[in-house]
Design a protein that fits this description.
This protein is an alpha/beta fold. It contains eight helices and ten strands. The strands form two sheets. It has a six-stranded parallel sheet with strand order 1-10-7-4-2-3, sandwiched between helices.
Length: 209
Amino acid sequence: MNENIIKRNELLATKVIKGLESRNMSGHYAASKEEALRKALELIPGGSTVTMGGGMSIHEIGLTDSLKKGNYKFIDRDAYEDKRAAMLAAYDADVFLSSANAMSEDGVIINIDGNANRVSAIAQGPKKVLFIVSMNKICADVDSAMKRARNVAAPINAQRFGLSTPCSKTGSCMNCKSPDTICCQILITRFSHHKDRIHVILVNDSLGF
């Protein structure tokens, strides 16, 4: 990665972390995917019950594989025949893993969901929520973060799942009410009443979408 981009990301991450701290959340900066993995494992005590919502970034830093191989009780939705049971188990987990569709520079986190299992667990339930967020998802403000979530992340996810939504065909949000829509719930996480519940690892890389 270009040295100027690295320096810019370091400076921006400092600003985002201050914003998170002002919102009773914790931020951490990782210069690489490998560093992000090490930091994530530091934040997850051995023996913890861990589960996750959808999040390509979590897989891309190698966290999912490490949890499956390590001393953790990892609730793998893909291994559950009863998907609802796996989703419900998330609310009593020690650690819930997620990425973000977008974040503002002052620490507001935006997530869009279809089934609401991810956004509901972020809002309430698990003892700790750990976000893996790459620097390409940081936006100037909440409005631009919302636009990114709806016009970048949502269309790509709709295409990834083979859904017949207008955005999967046009590449941008059409504010649809399609039966296939994945924009059913939008969660804006702007403050945490519970200190140290929400942690965000900012990764100096381009992860997810």
